[in-house]
Amino acid sequence: MEFDAYVARPVAPGARPAVLVFHAFGGRDDFAEGKARALAELGYVGVGADLYGVGRRGTDRASSAALMNGLLRDPEELRRRIAAAVEAARSLPGVAADRVGAIGFCFGGLAVLLAARMGLPLRGVVSFHALLKVGAGLDARPVARILVQHGQDDPMVPDEDVAAFAAEMRRVKAEWQLHSYPGVVHAFTNPAAADAAYGTVYDADADRRSWAEMRRFFEEVFE
Q1: What is the value of pTM for the model shown?
Q2: What are the residue boundaries of the structural domains of the chain, listed by start?
Q3: Which CATH architecture is the domain 6-221 placed in?
Q4: C-alpha distance from residue 193 to each of 64, 124, 163, 196, 201 (Å)
């Protein structure tokens, strides 16, 4: 299977830090590529990762879930693809290979947290409305710093998942933060999210605040 990447470059010359963007359950789309362009405007090389393969995209909720669940049922393959995406970004021309981070949304948020748990060579990762299932316990402190941006009323992330995640981060003495936005549910960064019954609703204030927190985070980790 072939994979590709969407790359947005800043106008600043020289080797620049890079930030990967891991997509939601539908695959790399206009939303993810827009985030890569927004990162380029901040001076980073924005790299829209592809975890599904060229041309493999969900067209509705059912097909998107099928693509995501296929990888979740094969954790070794998911790990392999995440590692390959990180290595591809680090090897791009104009990227400072020792200054790479990642962000992810929904399923992509789970992917960036997994990347940190895998010990991949990332300075920092930021998840937005990620699934927070802990999975197999960590044996060591993650290399990457971790910022979790979470909707406090996200129906897809029960309180016990948040508590278990926090407990593990404390156990391994990870360098991490969790920002929890009251009254906010899943997919709060996506303007197209408008299904209250499903638990996905855009929140402009949480979107703005979480992006600002991400900007501060990367300013620190890339300093």
Answers
A1: 0.96
A2: 6-221
A3: 3-Layer(aba) Sandwich (3.40)
A4: 15, 27, 26, 9, 5
